[in-house]
Amino acid sequence: MEVSCLTYLEYRAWRTIYTPLCALMLPYVAVLLITIAIAGNFGFVRFNYESIYVWILGLPLFAIPSFGFATLMRHYQLPVISPVQEDESNGLPRILLAIAILLVAVLLFKLYRTLSHGFYLFGTEDFAEEFSGHGVWAHLRGMIIPILILALYYVRKKDFWLWVLIALMLVIQFSYMVKGAIIITVVSALMMRLYAGKMHLNLTLVLGVIVGAVLVFYLIYMVIPLLGNDGEANMNLVEFIARHFVHYFTSGTLGWSYDLDQGIPDRNDISYIVAPFVNIWNAINGYEMISPVNPFYWNTGSSFTNVRTFFGTLSIYTNPLSFATYTLIASTFIYFWKMLATMTRNIYIYTILFYYCGLMAMGWFEFYLFHLSAIEVPIVALLYAWLAEKGKEVSLG
User: Fold this and answer.
1) What is the pLDDT of residue 275?
2) Taking phi first (over 0 means left), then psi (-120 to 50 degrees means alpha), and beta for anything else, what does residue 159 get?
3) What is the pLDDT of residues 371-395, one digit of tens each?
4) Alpha-carbon distance 305 to 284, whole Å?
5) How far is CA 397 from CA 59, 70, 88, in A?
6) Where in 255-397 does DSSP place strands (E)?
7) pLDDT averaged over every residue in the chain
8) Fewest CB atoms within 10 A around its CB: which of 111, 140, 225, 303?
9) CA distances from 67 to 21, 60, 80, 149 (A)
10) CA distance 368 to 370
């Protein structure tokens, strides 16, 4: 009832459902219903309904800045919805194509070197970490994300070479073996296309996304590992991955539920929520970095999980006052980008907005704002905007 009401008010405020609030709450509700259906059955742990309370409290708080910005814009007779102003060439700017090709070439070379050394099996976490899990390689991989979102936004059926470039960028993301990085990027681009009217929300699209998600899951957990260690596929492996697929989509909701049952032993301070800023400070001053990744793993019946959903993780590292304060500040920051995108119609600002929408859309799984990419990707997108503008000036000159 709450989500239905908030969705209606959000649509009335912005004349679209492709907003940060809707991205945060609608996927969560879908996953929550799946969780309730399987909890206590098929070997999964029972569901603690009290775990929903932080969402019941958090969503209206997150909605306050949204309705405030929409009211402010209407008061000053500013548009609350506007089309995306695309590049004059109606495609990915040449300078970004050149950057993408360079990044892909460098990262594929690093992938080849990692494979040729043979220290780690392809498809394992150790391999992914060695490939691009830290240092300059992680930053280079992060620089691909804004271009991949833009490429997926611009691409048409006849754009053969752009499809090839997209495929190569996805190969790099697949090789890193982090499902969230792949899903967030693709979902961000899909939402941007839906908002711009390049595609329409229908049953075919929904089924296509579901099938695509399943294929990504099987690729990561079966095809890539089999390629890496010459393993053999059988029905037991297929059934294991199918069960693990269900585990993945309920790991946040069941993980937070079970964590609550255990009395939240992983409770800690807010420094982990603002880890990107803490780590930037620590790097400047030579202090030890902190990892926001939760060290507590719970067995929810099929496998272990250390994720607690967006508001579950936020509540672990905050008290009631800082929970409310952070939620309001984070929502205000994200809706500032929405207001700016609507007013400027700039495609790079829209890229940043829908990247944050992509992060929110994974709220059923985990809190993603405590990763450096939440700061780095928008900064890189602004850099690309500046480069694209300079590229226009050079071509006109």
Assistant:
1) 95
2) beta
3) 999 999 999 999 999 999 887 766 5
4) 33
5) 50, 40, 16
6) 298-299, 304-305
7) 90
8) 303
9) 10, 10, 11, 27
10) 5
Residue 72 CB neighbour total at 10 angstroms: 11
Q: How many CB atoms lie under 10 A from the CB of residue 353? A: 29
Question: For the residues of 148-161, what is the DSSP string, one character each?
Answer: HHHHHHH--TT-HH
Contact between 251 and 299 under an 8 Å Cβ cutoff? The reply is: no
Residue linked to tokens 């089999």: 226
Per-residue burial over 29-65, b = 16 or more CB atoms within 10 Å of its CB, e = otherwise: eebbeebeebbeeeebbebbeebbebbebbbebbbeb
The amino acid sitting at 221 is Y
**At 67, which amino acid appears?**
F
What residues have CB less than 8 Å from 126, skipping those under 6 apart? 120
For residue range 278-302, what is the model confidence (pLDDT) as tens digits? Answer: 999 999 998 999 999 999 999 999 8
Which DSSP letter does residue 210 get?
Answer: H
Q: Which residues pair with 346 in a beta bridge?
A: 85
Express each pLDDT in 114-159 by its tens digit.
988 877 777 677 888 888 888 899 999 999 999 999 999 999 989 9
Task: Count CB atoms within 10 A of the CB of residue 211.
Answer: 10
Point out which residues pair with 299 in neighbouring strands. 304
Q: What is the pLDDT of residue 302?
A: 84
Quick one: tokens of 187? 């979902």
Residue 347 carries which side chain, given as an amino acid letter? I
Does residue 318 contact residue 270 with C-beta atoms inside 8 Å?
yes
- Residue with the two structure tokens 């969402």: 55
Q: Give the three-class secondary structure for 80.
A: coil
Question: What SS3 state is found at 299?
Answer: strand
Q: What distances in angstroms separate CA 387 from CA 23, 91, 332, 342, 381, one per listed residue?
A: 30, 15, 28, 22, 10
Quick: pLDDT tens for 206-223.
888 888 877 777 776 665
